[in-house]
Amino acid sequence: MTIPTDPETGEFHRAPNHFAARITADGRDGWPVEPGRYRLVVSRACPWASRALVVRRLLGLEHAISLAVADPIQDEKSWRFTLDPGDRDPVLGIKYLSEAYYKADPDYTGGISVPAVVDTPSGRLVTNDFPRITLDFATEWTAHHREGAPDLYPEHLRDEIDEVNRGVHTDVNAAVYEAGFATKQAAYDDAYRRLFARLDALSTRLENQRYLVGDTITEADIRLFTTLVRFDAVYHGHFKCNRNKLTEMPVLWAYARDLFQTPGFGDTVDFDHIKRHYYQVHEQINPTRIVPRGPELSLWATPHGREALGGRPFGDGTPPGPPPPTEVLPAQW
């Protein structure tokens, strides 16, 4: 895997999302909400894709949006469907996600990323705009949400959610990568400083409230969770984000366990995929490709005590039921 860093500054820069069409209830971008039409392609290793997995589960959209899971180990053509019979996605009929990208734009030369939403009749990629995908699941697909689905992006809290998300994205979600992929000390130091300053601020915010915004789970919690759940397994050591482990930050560790133990969160997390992807794909960082045995994953099941802060995880709604049989993960410990 080639890591795009600035040769002068040593800074890692993530490429912008090239495909930003939206699937909406009114179909104004040419892509109307239509159950059974679209396929969500993810890697369970990827934190950006994991957001879409959590939101899809919480809202009960499994019946409306089908799921393709890529192999956590990429090759020179990026994400591939080698977990499926014949090494092809059984719905799209393709071996590589890149085939859907090139159907959308034969001249495309950028990276191949997940999550991606593909139009199954045409085989064309619709969007890889990961921040917008989950918001549209929450706001444009409401006619197909399960009964009791939570409001993950409540209108009266959107400004606050957006503000929290901006800080979390810059200083947590992106900063771990900027630290891990930095090739010069100053670039690493800046990302490291921003990361732990933001984690300290988030810890203070969450000390006396159960969730980031309001008293229910929102999009903000989902975006922070997918980085926190990977922290000790990969970011602390592999990406040199090593001031503290998550397990050494009491408030954030309890908060992360609270979410992990909430239906729709931990049941989408595959630590095997996460660890094998980071340690075996990033050969510039880990040339031996050895996958560490730790950390001890059973700690995620220990009591967290966050119920004492009150809050209603699903607001006036209810927890999602169990995952579809084809999406049940092996035991994690």
Automatic annotation (TrEMBL):
Q: What keyword terms does UniProt attach to this protein?
A: Transferase
| Source taxon at top rank | Bacteria
One protein family per Pfam: GST_N_2
Q: Which residues does this entry assign to the site Lowers pKa of active site Cys?
A: 235, 278
Positions annotated as active site in the UniProt record: 46, 177
Q: Which stretches make up the GST C-terminal domain?
A: 154-281
* Protein name, UniProt field: Putative glutathione S-transferase
